Amino acid sequence: MPIDLDAVMLARIQFAFTVSFHFLFPAFTIGLASYLAVLNGLWLWTREHRYLELFRYWVKVFALAFAMGVVSGLVMSYQFGTNWSVFADRAGPVIGAPMAYEVLSAFFLEAGFLGIMLFGRDRVGEGLHMAACVAVALGTIFSAFWILSVNSWMHTPAGYRIDEATGQFLPEDWWAIIFNPSFPYRLAHTVTAAYLTTAFIVGGVGGWHLLRARRRGEIPSQATRTMFSMAMWMAALVAPVQLVLGDLHGINTLHHQPAKVMAMEGHFESHPEGCAPLYLFGLPDQEAQRLDYALGIPCLSNLILKHDLTSPLPGLDTVPRDEQPPVAIVFWSFRVMVGLGLLMVGLGVWSLWARWRGRLFDSPALHRAAVAMGPSGLVAVLAGWITTEVGRQPYTVYGLLRTADSASPLAAPAVAWSLVAFVVIYFAVFGAGTWYILRLLSRPPRADEPRLHDVVEGPIRSAGITPAPAEAARQGRPQTIGG
C-alpha cells in the first residue's frame, strides 16, 4: 500500500518511533521493579544470600533502564504541542488532568523513593529500604494506570461533552473518563505483558549463564539457578493467564471497535450465518478488499470472538473505505503478538516438564530456547501496540476526531528533519545505554556482587572540590581539579 509522506504521516511516524523506543524500557522496568521488591523481601525473610546477590545484580540494570525510559519519554509530551496541537487543544481538557496525575503521583513516588532503593540499604535500615522498593514498584504500576487510562479513553471515549463553540472535549464525569470501557482490559493485559517481558529477559539471561557454565565445565551459582527457576515459574503460570486476558480484551474491542478486530482477523467479507474462519495466514489486499492465499481453520474465529458458532460476524464490507484501518499492518502485527504468546506458553509448559523430571538446570535445549525467547516480550508488546494504535486509525479519538484533523499546520520538511534528528540521537544515546546493560548482563551474578555505591563512590563534580584519594584524605588535604 503506497504511503504518502505528507506532514501528517511524518508526524505519525515520528510519534510511533519515539513511543515505540520509549515503551521498551517501561515494559521491562514495570516488571523488574516488582521482581526487585520480591527479591528484597525474600532476602529479608530467608536471609539466603542468593536473593541479595540477585537484587544487587538486577538493581544496576533497573537504574539504567529506568533512566533511559524517563529520558526517552520526555519528548513525547512536547510532540503534543508541536506536531499535534489541534488534538492537544481539543482533547486537552480531558486528558490533561490524568497525565498531570501521572506525574504528581506515580513519577513523584518513583523519583522520591528511587534513591533510597538504590543506595539506602545501609543508610536507612532494612524496613524503610523494603518500603522504598515496594513504593518504586507501585509507582511504576500507578504510572501505567494513568497513561493507559488516557490511551484507553482515546479508544473508547466516555464521560465527556463537546463544546459547540470550540469543538473541545469537556469533562462531565471523571469516573467514566478514567474507567472508560476498554481501560480495565487494557490495563490488565499491558501490565501482565510487562511482567512477562521481564520474566523472559531474566530467563534468557539465566539460560545464557547456565549454558556458559556447562560449556566451561563449571557449576552454575545458586543465584543463577534461582534466577532461571523464578523466571520459568513466571512463564508457566502467567503466560496462560495472559491468553485469557487477551481474549477478554479482544471481545471488548469487538464491541467498541469492530473495524479493528475485522482487520486483525482479515475478515473482508461478513459471515451472516456465523462459522467465520480463523485465518492463520494470508496476504491482505485492501484495494481489492480480499485476503489472498488465505489459510484458515473453519468456524474458529466465531468460537473465539463470539464463543458460539452461529452468531453473525460482520466484515470490513460493512465499513466505509475511509474508515478502515491499514489492514496489512494490523493483520500481521496481531499474528506476531499471538504467535509469541503461544511460544511463551509452550516454553512455560516445557519448563514444568523439565522441572518435574529434575532437569530444569540440566537441559541445554531448554536453556537455548530461553535465550532465544529472551527478547520475545519486547517484540510482543511492540506488536501489540502496533495492532492497537494502527487499528484505531483513521482516528485519534475513536469515531470523533480524525488523525488528519488533529495535526499541527506544519510543513513536511520541518517534521522530516526533526524525525531524522530523533532517529540519530535515540540510536546513539540509547544504543550506548543498551550496550552497557548487555555488558552488565554478560557476566553471571556472584557472591561478592558489588553494590551501587561500591561502583559509584560519589557524585561527579564539574568544578570545585572533588572527593580526595585515600592518602590525601588521611592527611586531611582536599584535592581540587587540576591539582
Q: If you had to describe this structure to a student in words, what would you say it looks like?
A:
It is a single chain. The protein is mainly alpha-helical and 483 residues long. It has a domain at 13-180. 67% of the residues lie in helices and 6% in strands. It has helices spanning 7-46, 49-82, 85-119, 121-124, 126-155, 174-178, 183-215, 222-256, 258-265, 300-305, 327-356, 364-372, 376-392, 412-441, 452-455, 470-474, and strands at 160-162, 169-171, 278-285, 290-297, 395-397, 401-402, 465-466, 479-480. The chain has a two-stranded antiparallel sheet with strand order 1-2. The protein has a two-stranded antiparallel sheet with strand order 3-4. Strands 5-6 form a two-stranded antiparallel ribbon. The longest helix is centred in the N-terminal third of the chain and has 40 residues, at 7-46. The termini are far apart. Residues 460-466, 468-475 and 477-483 have low confidence and may be disordered.
Helical segment tally? 16
Largest sheet, strands/sense/barrel: 2 strands, antiparallel
Strand content: 5-15%
Indicate the radius of gyration in whole angstroms: 25 Å
Q: Strand pairing plus helix content: what structural class? A: mainly alpha
Silhouette: globular
- Number of extended strands: 8
> Largest sheet, order of strands side by side?
1-2
Low-confidence stretches: 460-466, 468-475, 477-483
Series of secondary-structure elements, N-terminal to C-terminal? HHHHHEEHHHHEEHHHHEEHHEHE
Average pLDDT value? 86
The helix content is 55-70%
Distance between the termini: 65 Å
Main location: membrane
EC number: 1.10.3.-, 1.10.3.10
Protein name: Cytochrome bd-I ubiquinol oxidase subunit 1 apoprotein
Keywords: Cell membrane, Electron transport, Heme, Iron, Membrane, Metal-binding, Oxidoreductase, Transmembrane, Transmembrane helix, Transport
